[in-house]
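Supplementary Note 2. Why include the ligand at all?

Several targets in our set were suspected to adopt different conformations when bound, so apo predictions alone were not considered sufficient. For every target with a known small-molecule partner we therefore ran a joint prediction. The input for manganese (II) ion is given below.
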Amino acid sequence: MSDEVSTALRERRGVVALESSIIAQGLPAPVNFKVAQECEAGVREGGSIPATIAVLEGRVLVGLNAGELEQLADPDRHVAKLSSRDLGVAIAAGVDGATTVSGTVTVAKNVGIDVMATGGLGGVHRDANVTYDESADLITLTRNSVLVVASGVKSILDIGATLERLDTLGVAVVGYQTRQFPGFYLRDSGFELDWSVESADEAAAAFARHREFSITSFIVANPVAVADQLDRHLHDEALESALTKNHREGVRGKAVSPALLAEFAGHTGGLSVQVNRDLVVANAVLGGAIAASLARSLA
Ligand code: PSU
Ligand code: MN
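The joint prediction is reproduced in token form.
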């Protein structure tokens, strides 16, 4: 753990865990390194301390310095993608790994960090009835009570099925200033939510009550800003093209989400990367404000 993060935890200040798979697998170089730094700055802007989580040469790091962030962002290092189940194996093997939401939440909970921020959660894939492809993010959210700020789930997924799974699994989902579930690159996925909160303080208060009754996580669904969202027509075209390409090439397993995101970037001429950047940084700022509020209420 970095000195800054361990001091912040000891002093019970707000700390926000940031995932690293978005850096190593989700976004292209060289913008990935910039986004990683912007997310850290965003958490500070929100009033908390950032703790980016990753594995480097078999060591779990909570709070990375600029050099370590740069190593993760380097495509030549072929950093592995680590969900919860991969952590122990990667550590024992002494390799580099970037943690998904699943891996990040697992480590965060282990060291006492209550809040994390990401872009879009993983979930149920559109062909899950055949492939059984459902992100480990979902099951991990049933085992660790962490508040996760995300712009919904990635729009490459079956959003309705993912919301049903979150319901079954007992994971709380509240919209941030909206009752429409966000659609990652788009503000509105077309699915409605039962609950919303109007402020960071309200989110923190609801999470504190949630934890008195449940060991599951709590999702704060924060839509991308109106001005930043992708054009809907372009979005739908890119999605169609990405799904067709993945199907044709038989992409499977961990490679599915990164391949779909990369195809989206290609089809939109990089516009989707900019939207992803804007939304994940906004989620880091909101995470920072919620963690600070939570820390104040526990003080
Ligand atoms: N959010 C983004 N980009 C990403 C991810 C989230 O804006 O690349 C990553 C997260 O790490 C998430 C992972 O946990 O995608 C889901 O991968 P899979 O579908 O293979 O479980
Ligand atoms: Mn998968």
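The pocket of pseudouridine-5'-monophosphate (ligand 1) is lined by residues 19, 21-22, 25-26, 100-102, 118-120, 122, 135-137, 254, 257, 261, 276, 280 (CB under 6 Å). Residues 3-298 form a domain with the Indigoidine synthase fold fold (CATH 3.40.1790.10). Comparable summaries for the other entries are listed in the accompanying table.
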